[in-house]
Amino acid sequence: MTKIERPQVFAMARPSALPLPVRDDVHAYTKPSVFDRWSDEAAGVRAVERGDNVITMFDVIGEDFWSGGGVTAKKVTAQLRAIGDRPVEVQINSPGGDMFEGIAIFNVLREHPQQVTVKVMGMAASAASIIAMAGDRIEIGSASFIMIHNCWVLAIGNRHDMQETSEWLEPFDQAMVDLYASRTGQTTQDIAKWMDAETYMSGTMAIERGFADELLASDQTTTDEDAKSRDREVNDLRAMELQLVSAGMSRSAARARINKIKGTPGAAPAATPGAGDDWSGLTGLLATLQP
Length: 291
Fold this sequence. Notes:
The protein is of the alpha/beta class. The protein has helices spanning 32-41, 73-83, 99-110, 127-132, 159-184, 188-196, 203-208, 225-246, 251-262, 280-289, and strands spanning 27-28, 45-47, 54-57, 88-94, 116-125, 137-140, 145-148, 153-154, 199-202, 214-215, 221-223. The protein is globular and about 45 Å long.
């Protein structure tokens, strides 16, 4: 008897790969305000259950200096290799991070031979929203959010440098517009407008606009209070670093300044950042950076 091979069935066609950057002097980040919102609304949200075919993304996208963690394409590739030729579930609660690393992770996931189900447990913002679009099926909590915006970078130079950077970024913003439009069925004009406005979409809105397919059952998520506390502590450091860099400091100088104010000059990143440190100086420093 001849065996009939059943073709793989996906929720929708796999999206095309996104372009990767070719410049090392420009880096894309999540804005400090996004870290603040994630801390207030989504920090600590986790899944109730986790199988052996699950990849969790409960961290920033890209390597993270302050925690020693972060979600990278290299780590995701290793996890997919360990899972093998099976369907995979990707659980996301992330404020984003390095958009270019997010693009790389998106491209890695889209190459997986089996179905990819994405579950937005708390927030998929910025670079994490790009990763979410790699799902053949996307599920989202009713109180969760997907946030999309234009590529946000830090660059230094004169007006010619700024013009060059602006022109260099246009294809990446357009690639995101095309990706979101392909996934959602929305017009590129509407997608561009939402990206310009830095739009947060709740679970129901994300489904209405095609960014997700179904709401997660309420009993699939929980809040880990210990994780929430750790997430908030590290987020304060991440946001502070970006504010200092925005003010003109190099990243190494910003990190050194924050460590000095914490009372641990030159200290390596700890497993529990902020534990036992004196945070009194950080409040004053942050106040000087507010507009």
